[in-house]
Structure formats: structure tokens, C-alpha cells
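In response to a reviewer's request, we include the raw inputs and outputs for one of the modeled complexes. The two entities were modeled together in a single run.
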Amino acid sequence: MNNLQQKAQQLLESGNYGLIVGYEKGTSGKARPVFIRKAEHASKLIFDESCDQNIAVYLYRQEIKHNKKKVIVANHHTLKSIVELAAENQVFDGDFMVLAFAENGDIIELNTFEEIEKHVATLYHGLTEAEAAMMKKIEDMSLEDRWAFWENEFSKCIKCYACRASCPMCYCPTCTVEINQPQWISVPSHTLGNLEWHVMRAMHLAGRCVTCGQCGKACPLELPIQLLTYKVALDSKQFFDSVAGTSICADNALAIFKPEDHENFIR
Amino acid sequence: MARIGVFICHCGENISATVDCEKVAKVASEFPGVTVSVDYKYMCSDPGQNMVKEAILEHNLTGVVVSACSPRMHEPTFRNACAEAGLNPFLCEMANIREHCSWVHEKSDATTDKAIDIVRTLVEKVKRNEALAPIYVPITKTAVVIGGGVAGIQASLDIADAGHKVVLVEREPSIGGHMSQLSETFPTLDCSQCILTPRMVDVARHPNITLYTYAEIESVDGSIGNFNVKIRLKSKSLDEKLCTGCGACIQKCPVKKIPSEFEQGLGKRTAIYVPFPQAVPNKPVIDRVNCTYYIKGKCKVCEIVCPTKAIRFDQEDSFVEVQAGALLLATGFDVLKTNFFPEYGYGKYEDVIDGLAFERLASASGPTKGEIRRPSDGEIPKKIVFIACAGSRDPAKGIEYCSKICCMYTAKHAMLYKHKVHEGTPYIFYMDIRATGKMYEEFVRRAIEEDEVKYIRGRVSQVYEKNGKLIVRGVDTLLMGQAVEIEADMVVLATAGIASPGSEELAQKLHVSYDKHKFFSEAHPKLKPVETNTAGIYLAGACQSTKDIPETVAAASGAAAKIAGLFSNDLLKRDPLIAVVKKCAPPLYSSCTGCFMCIPVCPYQAIDKEEIKDRSGNIIKTISHINPGLCQGCGTCVAFCKSKSIDILGYNHDQVCAEVEALLNEW
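The model returned the following C-alpha cells for the whole complex.
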């Protein structure tokens, strides 16, 4: 048994905690989320390179939302999402404990939002080299080429909304696309309607996306849709110095106005 | 089933010159749901309104579209007409085919087609309108007046005399403003202090006025009828209740060489000081920047000599919060300093002064006891050159406007000088003489004819010092541009009036608009001169543009009348076109996710949190709640809400979507 498994077993045996949300070994070398309720199942837990999913999305799920004895094993994406969810009042201080990992593999217990926020401040916020290269490739395209690129990608979208389901920040119980009185966004899947959906999703995530890329990983058609939300995240950083998932204060770039904002045309 | 009436107005020829109104009426009569569609020459006239009323009664209409001018013009007219005929006024909509169509297009079929499209969108909207009832909000009958110059004083007294409470906030240790610095006032040459100081005392004594001096506005929330104003009371280092204003501290204060702001630097003051002997309140403050105790940590002479032990070195800034129904901005102006002018020596010549400094020299209570003596050596100047339009009307200096008061006060200065120094010669360089007030022209003529003030029409290019004299080089444009050189003993620049420092920050705190010179903007230059664009916030005096005393007092009384008018009602009637958070049946209760990102978005601080509870009081969900008294219906939260959980009554998602579809879909 490794440290994590031992720790999980202790927590569950102590009776103070009744549920651990973490990762287990999945198929074809991938990790998958697991919900451990019994101490004898603690050995299923793993935490390694393969655990790259953002599982903050489960914290507010109806099934476990009100369970105040839960623990979540968090990678750095999950941690940032927890901070952003806290800023948006979707998770509450004291409702869960976080098990994070130091660089040397030691387990760090984080009990309060303040502790989580402090820990997140030590993490790297930004795109990986591969992601940055993809962004650059698209930004370097001419307008026509870029349009053609996305038109091609969106033509493949089947509007399964896996991107929405996987995103921790898509927590609205009634999504805009499901509102049909009136029907602002068209239901069937066609290129223009798909574009409408993805642009709307990106705009709704402006200043809120923690660049975990979970939407892209979840896409069954492997569309690089995470680049859309990355773009608005990078713009928020560039123009408003606002990075999602760093502060538990609600200071969304689109929600507040500062006199020094990059908007000379207003004055 | 909708029964909509469409009423197309020709607006004389304003609309019918380019739009075929008869055709619009005919086409509109075929829109689904339209029961009656007529056109008429003047729909807003009495017969026109009667057509609307009769149609409502005859056809039992469920909605009315008046296709005419902008809703800003006649929406209230037609809504009232509908109400008189028994139709809820909010079931009446204006289709603007004048400003949005006939005025901006040539006569053509396309123009008529556009008018038809506009009418169709409004027909589709009005079908979805709901009957609404106006909102009444209580009015807090207290006014906060910001600035205690003559404008603030006059307005405070007027509002207080009307029986309402006033809180007067002044930044300096005393009220009085610039008027208290003036010597005599044009065109009557009566003493400024003599007419102002009794008013200052009235303010302090009035039972309806609360005076906060040495105080600034920290923040303002709320809206018309119910503002919440937070005021910072800067520490005076003094217990005002104990201080009797005896002045012992001022006499003994060892720091005596601080240039006095009130005397424009011509006189000196101590570190614990009252700005001038007639100050209201006549109690000192400690200037912490210059006080020895705050610099070196010891001294405390004032504390030792104070007979009532009123000095408080450790006093901190405190805050008061005031609920107010209206705010009045009367923050006044300032004058450009002489160092703004490189051609006149960048302010380095002591004997080149601005008009306000000359007022102090001429004032009986000033540093020279009213004798005109030049600042450098105290000599009585034999020749003074007054330069009007120093900065004003000079686009090259960034000030295009006329400061308006300088022509008159310069004539007055020259006159006062001549009255006090009979052998002296005053020269005035001017561009034009603008003396347009009552008795003003006569006053200037008197200066020229009786007091022999030498007016020279032309600009001054340079002032420089030579052998103890100030050489003024200019041009006389009435002598074919002949160069003029005068050896003067003193030069007075009528520097431009500019916005008071801090105006921009204050405007941003209060959400009122201001112009590029940082003067506050009135809501309408002619018809709403004392209102700002923000309801419930009014303007008076030179904070709007430089004004002389009669104009300032008139504006102050005007603003006071507006505020007293507002306060004459107990309730403020408001259109119910406000935002609401949508609710629905359990288990969802509301699609609002409670992210509360709408709270910082709201410019009116109208959004707070609401807890939805079950019967035993357990909280099921916390969602946003919009205060109907504060919401102004701007719609920012609607656009921001990701789950579309907020609607504006009268402009809900359904209505707006129907309008868009009516425009886009083939008909």
C-alpha cells in the first residue's frame, strides 16, 4: 500500500470521512474517477501521471453535494477549479478536504479555502509547451485559413455536450442551450449552430477557464475546442491581468471595472 | 387572441415626406393579430390621441403600437392616453419610424419597407407585453450638498428653509469657498465677506443643516430617493466638542511660516490653524504635514496651552454614513497657477500673480490689510499690467473655453487699484471685453472713463524682468498691430478657471458624466441645467463651468428648488421596467445558480442574495435578488447572466427574441 492508500484507509476508518473522490486504474493505461466509501477499497486509489482529469466537476454533483464528510484527491487542475468554484459560490468552505501532492510526492492536507488558495499560488498557471504551440499554430493562420480550420472542426461536432459535462465551470442546472422559451440557440447539429454553441461556451468561460483542457480531452471527436477557452483565458490575463483559479474573491474580468482597465475608448 | 391596434403618425411631413404612411398602415393591417391599423397627420394631437382611445374601446384592444417618433418624445403621452381608455399603459409601445427611419433616409420604397419592418417588430413585441404596475419607492428627505462655497451655502439654506434636512460636506476646514477670499464684488463693489459671512453663520446655526468640514465623500451607493453616502471626516486632531475656538494654540504654535492657502501664499499660517478669522466653524485643525509633532515626534505646545484639553494627536479619520434622497454637487472651481505660463516666467517672478492673489492683496482682511503692495519687496506698484485671457480661449494651451468671469474681475481689479493708489496706472491687455450681465457693461465703462484704466486690445507675448521692473511686451491690435512695451511694477494674470482638483474622482464615485476639462456635465444644456444625467444628483455653480456669483447663486437656488420639488412627494413613482430573477417550480426553484457574479456587475448596487427556505426554515438554495427600488433597468445583469435567469420586465427574453425573429424571418 502506498501513502495515499494508507491515508485514505485511515481517513475512512476514523469515521470522520465517508467518501473519497479520487482516481483508479482504468482501461488502456488511463486513469478514471473513483468514489471510495469503504476502507477496504482504499487500495484502488492511485495518483500518478495518468491522473490528469479534472475531477472538481464532481464536487457539486447532486449525489455527493450535501455529503460533508468527503475528501477529494486533487491534481493541479482540480485545485484551480476548486478555487474558481469557491469564488463563484458553488462549493463551500469546510464541506470537503483536499489531498494534494507536493513535488516530492508527499501528501498535503488542505482543509480550508485559504489553505487551498495559498497552495494554488505555488502552482504553475499557464499552458504547457505543446498547448502553447497549438495556440501559436492557430494564431499564425490568416483569418481565412483560421475560419476554414474551425469550420471544418465544427462541422464534425455532434453536440453531445461532453465538453459541457466535463467542465467544472459548467454548473448551471439549466444551460442556455436548453432554454427553449425563447430558443436563442438552435438545437440540431450543423456547422453554424455548432459554432454558435462553442463560441457561446467560450464566452461564458471568459475569465473563468482554468485551462485544464478537460473539454478537449472529453470530446469523442477529438476537436481541439479547449483552444477556444484558452484564447479567452489568455486574453483575460493579457488585457485585465485576471487569471481564473487563483483567487477565491469574485473578481471576474467581465464582471468588474477598474479605472486602469485596458479600455481607453470608454473614457 | 391578440387584438393589436397600429397607429401610424405622419408627424406633419416629418415622416410622410419619405415614408408612405398609408401603405405602412395598409400592410400593418394584415399582420397577424392586428385588428385595426390607421394613419393620421398628427397622432400626438388631441384628435389623434382620441383615435387611439376610441379604437381601444371599440375593438377591445389588447395592445397598441404607435408608430411615430422616439419613445423619449411621446411614449408617456400615448401610455397616458391608453391608461385613460382603460388599457394598461405598459401594453402600449412606440415604433420609432421618425428618428430611426424617415429622418435618416431618402424617400424611397426601401424607406417605407423599413418602416413596415419596424412596425412589425413592435407588433410582435407588444403581443408578448404584460400589464405592469408602477413601483413606488419611499424618498429619504435629506439632501447631501458637496462643497461649501457660495453655491453649497445658498442651496443648503434654500433646501433647509423648505423644511428638509441637509448635510453639507466641505473639504477645507471652513466653508466659504473662493467667495470668502474675494475683496469686493462686481458690479456693485460691495464687500464679499460682508455679504457671505452672515450666510456662513446661518448655515452653522440652521437646525436643518448638519455641517461636516474637513470631510470628503468616500463612497456613494443607491439611487434617487435613497442614496447611501459614506463621508470621511478627516482627523482635525481636535475634540470639537471641547474646543471653544479661543485661538491660544494658534498663537503659541512654533511653526509659523507655512504659506497660507487662503492667502494664496501671500500670507503665512501656523501648523494648527483656522484658514481665516471669520471661518465657520471657527475651530482649528492641525496640518499634519507641517506640524512638528507629526514630523519629529515632539512639540505638543498646543496641547499644553489648550485650556480645555481639546487637542487629540492620536485622532484618526472617522466615517459617517448618511441616507439621502438627493445629492448636490457644488464643488466649485480653481484657477490655473502662474507657473502654467512659460511666456510669463513659469511663476518664477514673485510680482507676477494670479487674480485670486490680487483679491487677497486688495482685501481689507488680507496680508497687506488692503494696501496694494507687491509681494517681492512690499513697495506700492506704480504701474500694474493686467493680462486677461491668461490661458482661456487658447486652444494651443488646451483651454478653448472662455472663463467668463475674468473680464469683469479684471476691470474690478484695475478699478480697486486706482481707488487705492490714485497716482498708479492700470493697464489691461484684453482680447474682447465680455460684459454681458446686468450693470456689467456700465461697470466696465466706469473703469475706462472714470477710473482711467488703460485698455489695450492685444495679446502679451512675453513678460521678463529687467532692472527690477517687469517688462511686458505685447501688441496693440487697434493700432495696426503696433508693438507695445510697458515697464510694470506688477503683473496680474487673469488665469483660466479650471475644474476643482479631485473632480474626476468624485464624478466617478457618483457615476455622473463630465467633460474633457473635468467640469461636470448637465443633463441638458438648456432645459436641464442643474441636473446631471444620474437621477437624483444635481449641480450648482462653477463645478459645471466657471460662473460669477449671481449665476452661481441662481443655479444653487434652482437646484435647491429641484430637490425641494423631489422631496415634496412621499413616494417616488417609477416605471416598473426593472430586472427580476426568474423563479420556477420546485425542485429547481430558480435557474439562478447563485454564482453572484451579477453583484459586482450591477452599477447601482441593486443586487443582493435571497435565501429560498423550506417550511422548517432550512435553506434550500441561495439565489440573486434584485432590489426593485434600486434597479434602474439597465440590463447589464441580463446580458451577464450565463443561465439567462434574469429578465427585464417589459423587455424580457421572449419579447426581444420575438422582435429579432420578426426582423429576420420572411414575412
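As requested, we also summarize the result in words. The interface with chain B takes residues 88-90, 171-176, 179, 181-184, 204, 250-252, 254-256, 259 of chain A (CB under 8 Å). Strands of chain A lie at 19-25, 31-36, 45-46, 70-73, 96-101, 107-110.
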